TrEMBL record:
Gene3D superfamilies: Zn(2)-C6 fungal-type DNA-binding domain. CDD domains: GAL4. The keyword Ribosomal protein does not apply. This is Zn(2)-C6 fungal-type domain-containing protein. Residues 344-360 have a biased composition (Low complexity). Pfam families: Zn_clus. The keyword Nucleus applies. Transmembrane segments: none annotated. Keywords: DNA-binding, Nucleus, Transcription, Transcription regulation. Residues 12-42 form the Zn(2)-C6 fungal-type domain.
Length: 453
């Protein structure tokens, strides 16, 4: 008797394949993933992938479809069932599915999650860092990058997802943070696979990719400092939650911050390499304008608070190398503080003739300075020497005090969902970590005064 052949299906979800268990291929979530509360995902791991998640949303879970597809609509909070193809009536001619099959194109439904993230990116996330839309070229870059730079598109959507995780109701936060991490992983995988050289054509997408990636990592470190999705982000609404009351809490955060800091310096290498080519593009004046904002002021340009801090460092007789590293960190802090306060020199303004086509030239006025202010928060770690991260990891008191002064700047933007109460946490965490009555009260006087207001 001839043995009956068996064809093994390769359409199971990625999680069942990873676990080497038989998948019933029910969509959008297979039975195994429903039972084990795992993340169910089919198909490609890149942007065209349609993610499915068991995380709860306010709407009902979509019913399983009887017919498996290569890609299906993602389950998003409150979205319910996804968009399905229109049914074919006899007098309508050939169906879309038959046309796609005959032409070789796949019949892929719209990924509603990515549409939602893109809409939030354009209307909310970008507005957080550019309220008056003084960088209109960014929309053009996104449009041009869909096919040429998918790593940038994935990272922009990832950052939008992180932003939404801080603004949505608690029941939806884990869902959006999960997809923020997933899309960022995809972005890095695509970037590594493409390994794009820095050229005149790729310099701007690479620059924006590196900048957004760094800001994403910083905000995730500050908001989710416990790395605990169930507890949710630390925003202004829960200021009493984990305020660094125990030294181990702060030590755990410090480990995460140092990890972020080192990754950020990898990002800085991409930015530095791209800048050489950007100078030959129409966007050069905008980038130069922002770089000029952060020129180190030198000792004579320090305000009273930073001048006092540098004086304490110099009187501590820490040696030339340590003093030099701390001096550079304090001057960088003052440069960011100048941007936040809008007190930079008017001499760095750029002429109207150098504006990009179709847009106004950046203006050195109070409104534009306010737009740049929040970027002072994300820029400070980028300006530091890599050795400063080693000093933080070692728990050097002087480095921690400087970090507390950065926390003071963070506290200025405590109403932002992307920073929340992280400034208060950093200042109070450093204060408790160093201990009362150990001689650091004078060093920490200014930061503690600011967060106590």
């Amino acid at each position: 008797m001839a043995r009956r052949t068996h064809r093994k299906s390769r359409n199971g979800c990625l999680e069942c394949k990873r676990r080497h268990v038989k998948c019933d291929e029910r969509q959008p979530i297979c039975s195994n993933c429903i039972a084990s509360e795992r993340v169910c995902e089919y198909g490609s791991r890149f942007l065209s992938a349609n993610p499915r998640s068991p995380f709860p949303g306010p709407g009902p879970q979509p019913q399983a479809q009887a017919q498996p597809q290569a890609h299906s609509v993602p389950t998003t909070p409150g979205s319910g069932a996804g968009i399905s193809p229109h049914r074919q009536s006899p007098d309508q001619g050939p169906s879309a599915s038959s046309l796609s099959a005959s032409s070789g194109f796949s019949d892929q439904p719209v990924n509603m999650l990515h549409i939602e993230l893109f809409q939030n990116l354009c209307t909310r996330t970008l507005e957080t860092f550019d309220p008056t839309r003084s960088t209109p070229w960014l929309t053009d870059i996104v449009g041009q990058s869909v096919t040429s730079s998918p790593y940038l598109v994935n990272e922009l959507l990832a950052f939008s997802a992180l932003h939404m995780s801080t603004t949505r109701p608690p029941i939806q936060r884990a869902f959006y943070r999960y997809h923020a991490a997933q899309l960022q992983t995809h972005a890095l995988a695509i970037y590594k696979e493409m390994n794009p050289p820095v050229t005149h054509e790729t310099c701007v997408p690479l620059f924006v990719f590196a900048a957004v990636l760094g800001i994403h990592m910083l905000c995730d470190t500050l908001i989710y400092r416990d790395d605990n999705e169930e507890q949710g982000p630390h925003t202004g609404e829960n200021r009493g939650c984990n305020n660094g009351s125990h030294p181990s809490d702060f030590r755990a955060f410090l480990t995460r911050f140092v990890h972020f800091f080192r990754l950020y310096h990898g990002v800085r290498a991409i930015i530095g390499e791209s800048w050489h080519f950007i100078q030959d593009t129409p966007l050069a004046p905008h980038f130069k304008y922002n770089m000029d904002l952060y020129k180190l002021p030198g000792r004579l340009g320090l305000g009273p608070g930073c001048a006092k801090l540098l004086g304490l460092v110099e009187r501590a007789n820490l040696g030339n190398d340590l003093t030099k590293t701390y001096k550079q960190a304090i001057e960088s802090l003052q440069a960011c503080l100048n941007v936040i306060d809008g007190s930079t020199s008017a001499s760095t303004s750029i002429p109207p003739s150098s504006a990009s086509p179709g847009s106004d030239s950046p203006r050195r006025d109070p409104m534009h300075q306010h737009d740049a202010a929040i970027n002072g928060i994300t820029t400070w770690p980028l300006l530091l020497d890599i050795e400063f991260g080693d000093l933080l990891e070692q728990g050097r008191p002087e480095a921690l005090v400087i970090l507390a002064h950065y926390g003071m700047l963070l506290h200025r933007f405590r109403d932002s969902s992307l920073f929340g109460d992280s400034g208060r946490f950093v200042v109070q965490g450093v204060t408790r970590f160093l201990g009362q009555g150990c001689g650091w009260e004078e060093w920490l006087e200014w930061p503690n005064e600011v967060v106590s207001r």
